[in-house]
Structure formats: structure tokens, C-alpha cells
Design a protein that fits this description.
single chain, 331 residues, alpha/beta, Butyryl-CoA Dehydrogenase, subunit A, domain 3, 5-stranded mixed sheet, 3-stranded mixed sheet, 6 helices, 12 strands, 37% helix
Length: 331
């Protein structure tokens, strides 16, 4: 039986994060040659209108509309498979389809959020640019996870083959949008890089950070409104990570600050799932091979790809940023 281990030193922050600089995007650029800078130029040209009057934002809005429509079509197909053939399908096939339903439902939410960002006008804040990249990257991962989960079940191969073209099309649409680099005036952040540094203070310092900034980079900061400690020996606020997450407030707003969970060193035999109403969470462990989340679910034992992860989220409003971590199994 395989064991997946997650060495935790991570920061979970909202995809609506207010911590980036406040620089705004510059005047929209021409669409000339736009598809040439995307990963799939031929696909991009075939999907986009050849209209010289359109700008990069018009292309972005069209890409999102197509991506959202594709995800909705895939989700409808998954629901049909679940409703029409659940009695004749194997349990593992049903489980894989249920995972796909969760993942594609999340994609619809994410793409709706992206559509909300770029629907009005041609100006974006830098924090919105970071959110857009994060959300689109997440939708690509979700599609790949769905397909991998179906192909991991031999009885679901026919379904996987049926969904594969639409999933591939959706992936290319999101990749095209990621490739359409929106003009930006101000500091640029590298893909998948958190533009902040963690305070060098000992974790005990976190207990005095309520209402103060914990992370810094230039003028950026994160407001911490509450700090809780997870310690299996009972000396903290909670003995399990899931209990600490469950106690976090629901549907918080950006201006209300972050709920920080300090997970002290130890081995936590838990499967972490973060619900969609848990937002603006930050989680910090004590370092590599110090704070460890471990589980023994594996595809070989009948678990789906998605549900074999030790750490997962069902929400479109948080993301996981990993710092100084060992290889892990999470979605």
C-alpha cells in the first residue's frame, strides 16, 4: 500500500488576495500577432475573429466565454453519464465521474470569476492579473485531473475517450488566454511565485500578529485577524488540522483579513479537504520534515486520483502556495 506524504510549510491564501501592488494595466494593445505568442497559435487563430478593430481585452473576453461554455458542456455530459448509466457502471467509474463533476463545477466557478474581472473596461489591477493567471492555471489542472482519473479506471476508458476532445479543447482555450499577455505597467511577478516573503520571526510571533502584517514585499502586506494553533498534544487550540479549518469563519471578505493556522511540528494522519465557504486561510507549518500530513489512500487500492490526495480543496476562492516542501500528493 503506497503512502503519500505531504511535508507542510505552506501558505494558503485567497485568490481574491489584496496583497499585490496596486499598479494598473496600461492601455490595451492591438490584437495584431496576438495568437503568435500563445502556446497554440493555429488553434488561437481558428477560434478568434480576424477583426483588426479588436484589442487584447476583446480577445480575452471571447476566450473566457468559449472556455466557460466548454466547461458547462463537459459538466452537462458528466451529469448525463452519472444519471443515465450509474446503475450499470462500476463503482470506481461512478467515483471517477463524481470527481470530474466536482472539478468541472469548480472550473465553472473559476471561469465565471475570470469573466467578472475582464468584463468591464480595459483596465486591470495587478492583483487581478495574478488572480486571473492563478484561476486559469487551476482550471487546466482540474481538466487534467479529471481525465487522468477516468483513464485510471479501465471501465471508464470509453467515457474518457468521449470527453477527451472537449477537455483538450477547454485546456487549449485556457492556455491561449494565459498566453495572451495583458499589458502591465508596474512590477511583474513570475508565474507561480508568491510576491511576498515570510517573516523570519519564530512561529510564536504569529500569536502577536493579529491586526498586523505578517508578510511583506515592498508596500504589500497581509492583515491577520485571528491566529490558531494546531498541536496533537492538546496544548494548542486544536489537535487536528481539519478541526482548525472547520472553525474558520465562512465566506469572509477580502478586507476582513486572514485566518492563520499554525500547524506545529508533528505527523498528522489526516485527509484535508477545504470547503468552498472557507476563504482567506493562511496555514504555516514548522518546515520540511517537521510538519507532515500523511495518508495511505492510493489508486491501486481503489481510490480515485482526486481522492487519493492528502490535501485538497473544493473551493474556487483559495489556492495553495507551497514553500520549502517535499514532493506531495495533493489537488
Amino acid at each position: 500500500m503506497s503512502i503519500s506524504t505531504f511535508s507542510l510549510f505552506l501558505i494558503i491564501h485567497s485568490i481574491m488576495s489584496p496583497i499585490h501592488a496596486s499598479s494598473s494595466f496600461s492601455k490595451p494593445t492591438s490584437s495584431d500577432g496576438l495568437c503568435d505568442i500563445t502556446p497554440y497559435p493555429d488553434f488561437c487563430n481558428s477560434e478568434m475573429p480576424q477583426n483588426k478593430s479588436t484589442n487584447i481585452y476583446d480577445y480575452g473576453r471571447l476566450s473566457i466565454q468559449k472556455s466557460l461554455s466548454t466547461s458547462q458542456v463537459i459538466l452537462s455530459a458528466i451529469n448525463r453519464y452519472l444519471h443515465s448509466g450509474s446503475s450499470s457502471q462500476s463503482q470506481t467509474t461512478v467515483f471517477a465521474l463524481q470527481d470530474c463533476k466536482i472539478l468541472l463545477s469548480s472550473n465553472v466557478d473559476l471561469l465565471s470569476s475570470v469573466a467578472g474581472i475582464i468584463k468591464d473596461g480595459n483596465a486591470l489591477q495587478s492583483s487581478q492579473y495574478g488572480d486571473l493567471e492563478t484561476w486559469l492555471s487551476a482550471t487546466i489542472t482540474s481538466k487534467q485531473t479529471c481525465l487522468e482519473g477516468l483513464y485510471a479506471v479501465s471501465s471508464a476508458w470509453a467515457i474518457a475517450n468521449g470527453l477527451s476532445p472537449s477537455l483538450a479543447n477547454g485546456t487549449m482555450l485556457c492556455s491561449v488566454l494565459l498566453g495572451e499577455k495583458f499589458p502591465f505597467s508596474g512590477a511583474k511577478y513570475a508565474r507561480n511565485h508568491l510576491p511576498l516573503r515570510l517573516s523570519r520571526w519564530h512561529p510564536k510571533f504569529y500569536e502577536s500578529t493579529i491586526g498586523r502584517k505578517l508578510l511583506q514585499s515592498g508596500g504589500g502586506s497581509v492583515n491577520i485577524t485571528k491566529v490558531v494553533v494546531v498541536n496533537p498534544d492538546g496544548s494548542g487550540n486544536y489537535t487536528t488540522i481539519n478541526d482548525a479549518i472547520s472553525a474558520a469563519p465562512n465566506n469572509t471578505q477580502a478586507g476582513q483579513g486572514y485566518y492563520l493556522i499554525h500547524v506545529v511540528s508533528g505527523v498528522y494522519q489526516e485527509y484535508i479537504s477545504i470547503a468552498s465557504n472557507k476563504k482567506y486561510l493562511m496555514m504555516v507549518g514548522d518546515g520540511i520534515n517537521q510538519t507532515i500530513i500523511t495518508g495511505n489512500h492510493s489508486v491501486g487500492d481503489g481510490w480515485t486520483t482526486f481522492n487519493s490526495a492528502t490535501f485538497g480543496t473544493y473551493t474556487s476562492s483559495i489556492i495553495l502556495r507551497l514553500c520549502l516542501v517535499s514532493p506531495s500528493n495533493w489537488y
